[in-house]
């Protein structure tokens, strides 16, 4: 290559970098193109053009540029790292992990973000224990990384390590006191531990910081629901639905609160609306069947349980509940079949065993 071409390529690259730093990525790409045209082996021009394309969501071309940069310089850390990020955005998590691992192999204690990003990819694949290890390493190398604690907290929730999750969210809040999602996640961790009072306090904080987000009212409503504070629960579900009138889960939970208050007709109205919005949700039909059974509309209840089973044949509850409706209709043999099916799907369903014994006694005494 002529020296003048090499120098001109450097000038184009420098101009592209200036535009990159100003977030003018389309213009930056034009100058990186010119630099590459003059110097087809210009490693950093490929790498930075790839990064501009990544920022512009042009993922496939970004990968091509990172591939070329790596071909020219196989130990180029940043190309592996950013190619990993692109692959994460494309949900190609296994391939992303390979790239982050290569970063770590090249410089294990320098590329801290590679541990963090690899943890996220492992989380997405359900590899929670391995994700925890990477979050631990991130925190070891950067102890004030709030997002690493947050990621580890959410991973601990997946592993049902709820107290450890709360400890992580406490640390996030210590580092970032206005980070709403940490309060939100901590609220759910507390709810899983049945610490409903603490969960409500965290949802209060979410509402204070985040204003009118329907999820916060829905979450707090469920904390009230499980605390058997049904009137406050309904108020929160009302607010969630006011903010999002297609919020299926809020209609379902409000129906649950109304059911517990014996407001059966209103509960059915909520479930009708939920089913209108999500006609393939097996849980909604099961729940509506419960209310119809309570109203002694046993045949209609059975129709709902039938639909629930049709949508999910491996869900034990509608078999048990259909057994109850058949029991109430004195169809004992059919009820027995449903209770047995329930136990086949979940052998810890103690109520089903009790009902089977009850039916056997009835049939023996006939």
UniProtKB/TrEMBL annotation:
User: Which species is this record about?
Assistant: Brachyspira hampsonii
Q: Which superkingdom?
A: Bacteria
Keyword tags? Coiled coil, Repeat, TPR repeat
Cellular compartments per GO CC: cell outer membrane
What the entry lists under InterPro entries is as follows:
TPR-like_helical_dom_sf, TPR_rpt, Ycf3
Q: Which GO terms describe its biological process?
A: receptor-mediated virion attachment to host cell
Q: Is Coiled coil one of the keywords?
A: yes
Against SMART domains, the record matches this protein to:
TPR (SM00028)
Sections of the chain in a coiled coil: 254-308
Xref: PROSITE patterns: TPR (PS50005), TPR_REGION (PS50293)
Question: What name does the UniProt record give this protein?
Answer: UDP-N-acetylglucosamine--peptide N-acetylglucosaminyltransferase SPINDLY
Keyword Coiled coil attributed: yes
Q: Which PANTHER family match?
A: TETRATRICOPEPTIDE REPEAT PROTEIN 6, UDP-N-ACETYLGLUCOSAMINE--PEPTIDE N-ACETYLGLUCOSAMINYLTRANSFERASE SPINDLY-RELATED
Q: Which Pfam families did the record assign? A: TPR_1 (PF00515), TPR_11 (PF13414), TPR_8 (PF13181)
Positions of TPR repeats: 9-42, 43-76, 77-110, 112-145, 146-179, 214-247, 248-281, 282-315, 316-349
């Amino acid at each position: 290559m002529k020296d003048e071409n090499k120098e001109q390529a450097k000038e184009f690259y420098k101009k592209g970098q200036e535009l990159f730093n100003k977030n003018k990525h389309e213009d930056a790409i034009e100058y990186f193109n010119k630099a590459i045209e003059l110097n087809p082996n210009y490693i950093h021009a490929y790498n930075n053009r790839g990064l501009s394309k990544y920022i512009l969501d042009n993922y496939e071309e970004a990968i091509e540029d990172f591939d070329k940069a790596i071909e020219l310089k196989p130990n180029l850390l940043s190309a592996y790292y950013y190619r990993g990020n692109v692959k994460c955005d494309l949900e190609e998590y296994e391939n992303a992990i390979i790239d982050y691992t290569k970063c770590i192999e090249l410089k294990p204690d320098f590329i801290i973000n590679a541990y963090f990003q690899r943890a996220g990819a492992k989380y997405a694949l359900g590899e929670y224990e391995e994700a925890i290890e990477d979050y631990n390493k991130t925190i070891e190398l950067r102890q004030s990384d709030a997002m690493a604690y947050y990621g580890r907290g959410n991973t601990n929730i997946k592993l049902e390590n709820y107290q450890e999750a709360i400890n992580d969210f406490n640390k996030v809040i210590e580092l970032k006191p206005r980070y709403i999602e940490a309060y939100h996640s901590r609220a759910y961790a507390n709810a899983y531990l049945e610490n409903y009072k603490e969960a409500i306090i965290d949802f209060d904080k979410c509402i204070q910081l985040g204003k009118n987000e329907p999820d916060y009212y829905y979450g707090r409503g469920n904390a009230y629901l499980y605390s058997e504070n049904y009137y406050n629960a309904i108020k929160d579900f009302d607010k969630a639905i006011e903010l999002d009138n297609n919020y299926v889960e809020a209609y379902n939970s409000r129906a649950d609160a109304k059911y517990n208050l014996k407001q059966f007709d209103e509960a059915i109205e909520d479930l009708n609306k939920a089913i209108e919005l999500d006609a393939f949700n097996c849980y909604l039909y099961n729940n509506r069947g419960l209310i119809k059974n309570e109203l002694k509309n046993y045949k209609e209840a059975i129709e709902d349980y039938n639909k629930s089973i049709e949508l999910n044949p491996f869900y034990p509850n509608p078999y048990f509940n259909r057994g109850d409706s058949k029991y109430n209709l004195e169809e004992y043999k059919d009820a027995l079949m449903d209770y047995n099916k329930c136990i086949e799907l979940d052998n810890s369903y103690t109520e089903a065993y009790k009902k089977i014994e009850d039916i056997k006694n009835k049939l023996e005494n006939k």
